[in-house]
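Q: How do we represent a protein-ligand complex in a form that can be generated token by token?
A: Start from the inputs.
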Amino acid sequence: MKYALIRMLLIASALAPYAATALDIQLPAETAAFKPSELPGYVLAQRNCIICHSVHYIQSQPPASPRSYWEATVKKMKVPFGAKIADEDIPAIVDYLVKTYGAERSSGN
Ligand code: HEC
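Then emit the structure tokens for the protein with heme C bound:
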């Protein structure tokens, strides 16, 4: 009984340094908004793509998704999902999405 207590104390003191490290929490980068960009589609995406759901839907797509995938996705949001996206805005939105979240990202993104 006595030894069990000593052993517990030893284990607790051995783990103490790890407990201290575990408190060193790194917060993740801001992910609740579209990634800022010079591309015209950035503003259009902000205007058209977070009315029904969060940016998370876009951020969680496979990073290798090609332009055709994003185009199909944006068109799907319009028909059948009913998003009010102007047809002439679609190419710019697709361009921003594939270059920011898809296959045409520049390295380091
Ligand atoms: C009219 C509402 C509406 C708007 C506006 C809208 N979406 Fe969606 N979106 C949906 C619905 C509904 C789903 C499917 C939700 C589910 O499956 O749970 C979805 C899902 C998605 C997904 C997940 C993958 C998939 O294919 O289901 C992505 C990516 C996405 N939307 C991107 C966009 C982008 C980019 C825009 C702007 C061009 C946009 N959405 C605008 C309604 C909308």
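The radius of gyration is 23 Å. The chain has five helices and no strands.
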